[in-house]
From TrEMBL:
Residues 1-25 form the signal peptide. InterPro entries: Cyt_c-like_dom, Cyt_c-like_dom_sf. The keyword S-adenosyl-L-methionine does not apply. Keywords: Heme, Iron, Metal-binding, Signal. This is Cytochrome C. One of its GO terms (molecular function) is electron transfer activity. SUPFAM superfamilies: Cytochrome c. Residues 29-105 form the Cytochrome c domain.
Amino acid sequence: MLKKWKQIGGFAMAAFLFVAVQSQAAQEDRAAQGQKLYDDLCAICHTEKPAKMMGQPVDGLVAKMEKVKGLTPPPNDKVAEMQEALKPLSGQDMKDIAVYLNGLK
Ligand code: HEC
C-alpha cells in the first residue's frame, strides 16, 4: 500500500515538474516575442534599458500603456507617436512587452 502511494507521489511530482518547466518555457517565448516588439517599436524613444520600466510589475506596465493609448487628444507629438506605435498591438502583444520589461534588470 505504501509503495503504491510512493509511486503515485512520484508520478504527481514528475507531472508537476513537467508543467512547471513547460510554463517557464512559455514565459520565455513571451519575453522573446516582447523583446522583438520592444526593440522594433519602443526602444527608439525609451532606450534599450528603460530605467523607469525595468522590473516593474506586468499588470502595471500594461495599465500604463493602456493609459497612454487612451490620452485624447495626445498632449504632445511624442505621445501621439507612441500611440501610433501601440495602435497595431493586441492585448497579448502589450502583455508580452510587459513580460520582457519585467524581466530586465
Ligand atoms: C515617439 C516616442 C515614443 C515611442 C515610439 C514609444 N513611447 Fe512610450 N512614452 C513616450 C512618452 C513621451 C511618454 C510619456 C512621458 C514619459 O513618461 O516619458 C511615454 C510613456 C510610456 C509609458 C508610461 C510611463 C509611465 O511611467 O507612466 C509606458 C509604459 C510606455 N511609454 C511604453 C511604451 C511602449 C511599450 C512602447 C512601444 C510599443 C512605447 N512606449 C513607444 C514616448 C514614446
